[in-house]
Design goal:
Blueprint lengths: L17 H51 L42 E4 L7 E5 L13 E2 L4
Antiparallel strand pairs: 1-2, 2-3
Length: 145
């Protein structure tokens, strides 16, 4: 019979080495960086989308004014002819397709009001990403984009 030494259990346990842990942390960091970048990109895309919508609404309002010789009293007048419409030409298809065009990229209704004594004849703005109640510095005004 051959004498066999009993093998001593290895001092190494079945855990992860420092290199393996470092690789996992590095991969998690890459994914976190990608997520933050995607979130930032989405935020910029929503801002640019709202600027685009504001500019389109401004153009529709100006077209309405050029054809009817008055500014609309409310945004909804850009969809359907107002009951008191008497002069000028009215586009029978309206100036915007539907009322979803009055919403900013965050789903909030854009604000419109006539300002006959102001610098501009009307104000058109979005409250921005934080919605109604946000400070005026966050608002996106069509005249300042």
């Amino acid at each position: 019979m051959i004498y066999q030494e009993k093998m001593q259990p290895s001092l190494r346990t079945s855990g992860m080495s420092i290199i393996e842990i470092s690789v996992v942390i590095m991969i998690m960091g890459i994914f976190a960086g990608l997520a933050v970048g995607a979130y930032a990109w989405l935020g910029r895309a929503k801002i640019n989308g709202t600027k685009y919508k504001l500019e389109n609404l401004k153009n529709a309002i100006e077209l309405y004014k050029s054809e009817g010789r008055i500014y609309p009293n409310r945004l909804e007048d850009l969809i359907t002819k107002p009951a008191d419409w008497k002069q000028g030409y009215y586009n029978p298809e309206g100036y915007v397709k539907n009322d979803s065009e009055f919403d900013d990229s965050w789903g909030e209704r854009m604000q419109y009001k006539l300002t006959p004594t102001g610098k501009h004849k009307f104000e058109l703005y979005s409250y921005g990403p934080n919605g109604e109640g946000s400070p005026q510095e966050e608002w996106m005004n069509v005249w300042e984009i």
